[in-house]
Amino acid sequence: MKATGRRRVDFSMWLFEQRKRDDAVGGAGSEAYQRYQTGRWPGAGTLQDRLDDMRKSGVRGAPLKGLEEAWWEYIDVVTKDVAEHHLLRELAAVAQRALSEAENIEEGERYAIDKAYVERLKRLLAKLREI
Predict the structure, then answer these.
(1) Domains in the chain: how many in total?
(2) How do residues 23-53 score in pLDDT, each as one tens digit?
(3) Element housing 112 (H / E)
(4) Is pLDDT at 21 greater than 80 in this prediction?
(5) Of 30, 44, 123, 129, most Cβ neighbours within 10 A?
(6) Is residue 42 part of a domain?
(7) How far apart are the first and last CA of the chain?
(8) What per-residue string of b and e applies to 90-106 under the rule 16 or more CB within 10 Å gives b?
(9) pLDDT at position 4, please?
(10) Distance between CA atoms of 4 and 80, rounded to whole angstroms?
């Protein structure tokens, strides 16, 4: 789906607006808003940064999936330039994380990158081409 949105709102504000929904995105919005109220929600950053932060706090499973689902929905409701900006920042953050965790094999000639990072990078690149 192409980014057809017309909104130029920050991800955090958009996510907080979703907290009354009765689905995974609403749950992510509620979790994020609670974290914001207690000073534990980063005001800026990438989805990767936020996921890492939540993992460090012990959050697992559905809240992380809900946050990722919310981010992808957000990309579809904002303007093309906002979507491109966030996709490029996310692409850089995921690539940096993947490379920092890459396993050196065959005496430096090859590296193994976690499949989850490869899949996220493919999805980000596909969305960039799409919009």
Answers:
(1) 1
(2) 999 999 999 999 999 998 887 789 999 998 8
(3) strand 110-112
(4) yes
(5) 30
(6) yes
(7) 8
(8) bbebbbebbeeeeeeee
(9) 53
(10) 7
- Residues written for the chain: 131
Predicted pLDDT of residue 8 = 83
Tokens read off for 98: 């993947």
113 φ/ψ sector (left φ>0, alpha ψ -120 to 50, else beta) = beta
Q: What is the residue-averaged pLDDT of the chain?
A: 91
Burial 33-72 (b: 16+ CB within 10 A, else e): bebeeeeebeeebbbbebbeebeeeeeeeebbebbbbbbe
Q: Could you tell me the CA-to-CA distances from 26 to 2, 20, 116 in Å, in that order?
A: 23, 6, 25
CB neighbour list of residue 54: distance below 8 Å, 6 or more residues apart? 63, 64, 67
- Residue 103 confidence (pLDDT) above 70: yes
In a domain, 4, yes or no: no
Average pLDDT over residues 84-111: 91
In a domain, 109, yes or no: yes
Domain range for 90: 11-130
Task: Grade residue 6 by pLDDT with cuts at 50, 70 and 90.
Answer: confident
